[in-house]
Amino acid sequence: MSHFVSKLDDETLRHLVEALDESGQAVSIYDADDNLRYANKTYQSMFLEGYEGPFTFTEILRYGARNGVGVRIDGGDVEALIARTLPRRRSVPRKSFESDLLDGRWFWIDHTILPNGWLLTVAAHITSLKHNEKTLRQAHNAAVHASQTDLLTGLPNRRHILELLDEALAAGATSGSSLCVTMIDIDRFKNINDTHGHDAGDAVLRHFASVSREKLGTHGFIGRMGGEEFLVILPNTSLIDAARLIQQVRQECAGGVPWNGQAARSYSFSAGLVEAQPGDDRSTILNRADRALYTAKRQGRNRTKLGLRQENSADSAGA
Fold first, then answer.
1. How far is 225 from 203, CA to CA, in rounded Å?
2. Against a cut of 0.90, is the pTM above it?
3. Catalytic annotation, pick one of 49, 59, 163, 228
């Protein structure tokens, strides 16, 4: 420690400035009035290329906004950014945050208020880390999507559609809005598989999923419960409108789907349609929809039955 010096001589200061220029970090010092007193090469390349002053924090931001350099500004309103930033710029002795530039680079920035009120900023390049973070986030999102999606049809799988049902029931109970639920079963699906092969059965399932997504649009959700059974959730939809939507799907399915290189063959489905009642949960509403579905199948298939809270039921939109 005998050779350590607490004050910088000119030679040491020169070496320090050279090191800061070559470090790759962006270093700047602003005085108490926010005039730029020092900027190393990296900082200059980020904010000051072609700039001739005045070298104040606000004018440097305005220059960047006019010339497409420097920080990316949400909404493009530099004056709004200045108004938000100035009151917080020296609000705490030290703070750290990340910021991205218009050229796509990301930096982790440390702000330190010096004893004389000057502001030291040191920005480290973290673009590669942000890219890794984005890749990990995309991988996570893909994994979540895969865990929620039926591989064959691309629809929500059983677990996910039941989660959506729980959410819809909770939202309906809070808002008091209507909610309709339909259980659907492809008619004589085993015969399709046995007669024409599993490729034909898969073609029917994919076609039904595609038609349903198109006809339901933004009205609600459809998911595959398993095999040839599907669940439709229609928030903010009356029984009459729900029956009309299901009938539109049925009519499209009657147009058929080609399989094994043959002409399009029609198929049908049976449906049990119910409306949520006060106090309904997943179990009670699915039980009523199931009962209505099996009534439709017993009465000849290719029809929709309305399931009421009572045991009686009524026909709707039979084909």
1. 17
2. no
3. 228
